[in-house]
Amino acid sequence: MNDSRPDLRPETRAVHVPQPAIEGSRPISVPIYQTSGFVFDDPAVMADAMSRPDGAFVYGRYTNPTVRSLELAVAGLEGGTAAIATGSGMGAINTVLLGLLSPGDHLVAQRSLYGGTAAMINELVGRFGIEVTYVPENDPAALRAAVRPRTRLVYLETISNPMTLVADLPAMCAAARELGLLSVVDNTFATPMLCRPLEHGADIVVHSTTKYLSGHTDVVGGLAVFADPGLHEKVWHFAIELGASADPFAAWLTLRGLQTLALRMERHCSNAHYLATRLAAHPAVTAVHWPGLASHPSHELAGKLLSGCGGVLAFDLAGGRPAGERFMSAVRLALLAPSLGGVETLVLHPATTSHRALSADELRRSGIGEGTVRIAVGIEHPEDLWADVSQALS
Ligand SMILES: *Cc1c(COP(=O)(O)O)cnc(C)c1O
After folding, report:
1. 366: CA distance to ligand 1 center in Å?
2. What is the CATH number of domain 262-393?
């Protein structure tokens, strides 16, 4: 304990509470450092801490020991050198895009993007004078053809939502490198258990830790992992100004989820495989979109790139939009909810919910049918899941 100060008055002693100095042992699990700032004995150490990402802890918006623990853990899993944890996945994506792009710059992005990312890029184009070209996620020739003098980066997603297209990371990242561009990959759907984009040539990996990394549908968070410490430092300076920093309690929940990520991913993948196979054989279903199936356009690439095909699948109902809506109200165990990556199975009808802003034409172009249903498969018993899905289909 720090000395208690009997010479001070109660008002002062209530403010300056004693803290245990832990010696001789340490906590097994990472504690929540619920403090907004840190105390220094030496002003020079404080000045140094404020000017670089790996100095002493200084202020919660910069980082925090609980948050740092999460940053180091995910950077390690992804094979990166450093990370920046943020308050949401969009916080991580914005930190990276705004930290690296300036007005007049151009980026190349894959066509099938997470909705929030697509909306954000529209914002950059509409209000910040940044330009974008969309290319297929597996077409390095289209990427080469899209490049302009002010092209700065390529933006990809390992597995896309909801049609589960797999990006050709080795080919796309190699082309980007050749052209002197940075490649940024959203690895939310795959997680480092199924794919590590930095090993395939990416420079930055972004995550919505809201999904599989935390895994229990109880926290919103994000994270960006960097291969190069110099690039991390550059984005870090912007990140502390942007202020999208992670909260220590959210980081703690995410760390707790992360410890079971490998086990959960195995079950998410095997459950998705089981449901995809059963759905593909069902007469009410015209197509199943999951890269583990031989019928999927990314099947061969998935075999080379992923050590599991993920827990999200989509399927098309023969009955179109009304059948999709009927299915949504007929499930009993699966929950009708947005998001994914938690232990519970969630279902969504994109045409009437997440993608309702798209016209029938735009829907078709993104490969989403009026009767397409997305399932974010949880870790329940596969037979219980199939019993629920098959009763909802009839
Ligand atoms: C959910 C999600 C995001 C956004 O993350 P939030 O934590 O909701 O801000 C970005 N990319 C993908 C692929 C996602 O699934």
Report:
1. 18
2. 3.90.1150.10
